[in-house]
């Protein structure tokens, strides 16, 4: 699978699938956020990814890197909550790492995502086990060495594994031990992002 | 700005709330003496008036106060901090010489505006704002 070359079309499908998934799951994300946050995660991401798709459709970028940097920039501009700069940094940094190449391998994508996830950790000042999006992103990236499906599964498991954790970052951290027993909304949306990646890969195989 | 005039450090105040950012800006300018030459701009809330952080409002505010001497950005919390950091990492969104200042929002804003109004440089403005962390209240 590391031989597979991914083109701009693949990354456009990924972003489209992510937007659709965020749309479907918006109320669940907001419900998760209303338990420990300010109940806007679903609507914020919905607005952000809708803007991403609109921009990408208006003028589809020609390279994988350009698709992701454009998407990242849109998220930073339009989300309005902490998930904007965090997801924006994730996509933009991945895009920058992929550079100008017209096609990238899965291995190159994994390496770029690894760097980007580290940048997200640095931006948020968070570590694994803090009950943040990192707890889904990190296992997701690591499992990419196996397959897109494995990455989606690992990210989903990582998100579910935040339930017993105490939140150490963001508004949820003010709740202290009372944040235990709730899935982190950011980890949940990060799992959606990896599920959308697997979806884009499936669509590619079918074509 | 003509070349003969002093360029002042600009101050941008970023809060989750429009009214908070506006009020803190007024407070800081008022405590600095009212007739303040250093430009101060508020970037609070979202463009539709809601609570949150707007990259657009922040960028606009920074460009408004930029006189070429640098821009000190003070933020309240959470997404305000992350958005400014992400914009700075972008490299081309904010004016050159824009800096996120690590300072308490209200006290730091007053210190930053008072210092900027004296014509001090960005390092001095940032240092004065940061020193506000040391004023204990107990």
Write the layout of secondary structure elements.
The complex is a heterodimer of chains A (207) and B (138).
Chain A: E1 5-7, H1 8-36, H2 41-58, H3 64-78, H4 83-98, E2 103-105, H5 106-124, H6 134-143, H7 148-160, H8 185-206
Antiparallel strand pairs in A: 1-2
Chain B: E1 10-15, H1 18-31, E2 40-44, H2 55-65, E3 71-75, H3 79-90, E4 98-100, H4 105-117, H5 122-131
Parallel strand pairs in B: 1-2, 1-3, 3-4
Helix pairs in contact in B: 1-4, 4-5
Query: Could you give the order of strands across the largest sheet of chain A?
Result: 1-2
Most extensive interface, residues per chain?
A-B, 21 and 17 residues
Q: Which CATH C-level class of chain B is it? A: Alpha Beta
Count of structural domains of chain B: 1
Query: Terminal Cα separation of chain B, in Å?
Result: 44 Å
In what range is the share of β-strand residues of chain A? under 5%
Would you state the CATH class of chain A? Answer: Mainly Alpha
Q: So how many helices of chain A?
A: 8
Number of strands of chain A: 2
The overall pLDDT average of chain B reads: 93
Element order, helices and strands of chain B? EHEHEHEHH
What is the name of the CATH topology of chain A? Answer: Serine Threonine Protein Phosphatase 5, Tetratricopeptide repeat
**Low-pLDDT runs of chain B:** none
Outline:
By secondary structure, chain A is an all-alpha fold. In chain A, 69% of the residues lie in helices and 3% in strands. In chain B, helix 1 crosses helix 4 (105-117) and helix 4 runs antiparallel to helix 5 (122-131).
């Amino acid at each position: 699978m590391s031989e597979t070359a991914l083109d701009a079309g693949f990354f456009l499908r990924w972003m489209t699938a992510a937007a659709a998934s965020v749309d479907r799951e918006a109320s669940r994300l907001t419900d998760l956020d209303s338990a420990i946050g300010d109940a806007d995660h679903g609507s914020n991401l919905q607005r952000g990814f809708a803007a991403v798709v609109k921009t990408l459709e208006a003028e589809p970028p020609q390279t994988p890197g350009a698709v992701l940097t454009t998407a990242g920039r849109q998220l930073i501009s339009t989300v309005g909550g902490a998930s904007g700069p965090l997801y924006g940094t994730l996509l933009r940094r991945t895009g920058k790492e992929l550079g100008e190449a017209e096609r990238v391998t899965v291995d190159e994508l994994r390496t770029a995502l690894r760097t980007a996830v580290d940048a997200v950790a640095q931006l948020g000042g968070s570590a694994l086990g803090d009950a943040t999006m990192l707890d889904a992103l990190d296992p997701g990236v690591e499992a990419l060495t196996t397959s897109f499906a494995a990455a989606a599964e690992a990210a989903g498991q990582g998100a579910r594994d935040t339930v017993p954790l105490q939140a150490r970052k963001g508004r949820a951290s003010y709740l202290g031990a009372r944040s235990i027993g709730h899935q982190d909304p950011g980890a949940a949306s990060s799992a959606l992002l990896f599920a959308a990646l697997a979806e884009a890969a499936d669509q590619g195989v079918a074509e | 700005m003509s070349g003969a005039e002093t360029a002042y450090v600009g101050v941008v105040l970023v809060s989750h709330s429009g009214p908070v950012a506006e009020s803190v800006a007024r407070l800081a300018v008022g405590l600095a003496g009212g007739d303040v030459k250093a430009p101060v701009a508020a970037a609070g809330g979202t463009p539709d008036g809601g609570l949150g952080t707007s990259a657009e409002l922040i960028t606009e505010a920074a460009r408004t106060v930029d006189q070429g001497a640098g821009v000190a950005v003070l933020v309240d919390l959470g997404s305000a901090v992350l958005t400014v950091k992400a914009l700075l990492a972008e490299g081309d969104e904010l004016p050159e010489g824009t800096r996120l200042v690590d300072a308490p929002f209200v006290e730091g804003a007053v210190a930053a505006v008072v210092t900027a109004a004296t014509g001090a440089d960005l390092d001095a403005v940032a240092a004065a704002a940061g020193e506000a962390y040391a004023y204990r209240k107990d």
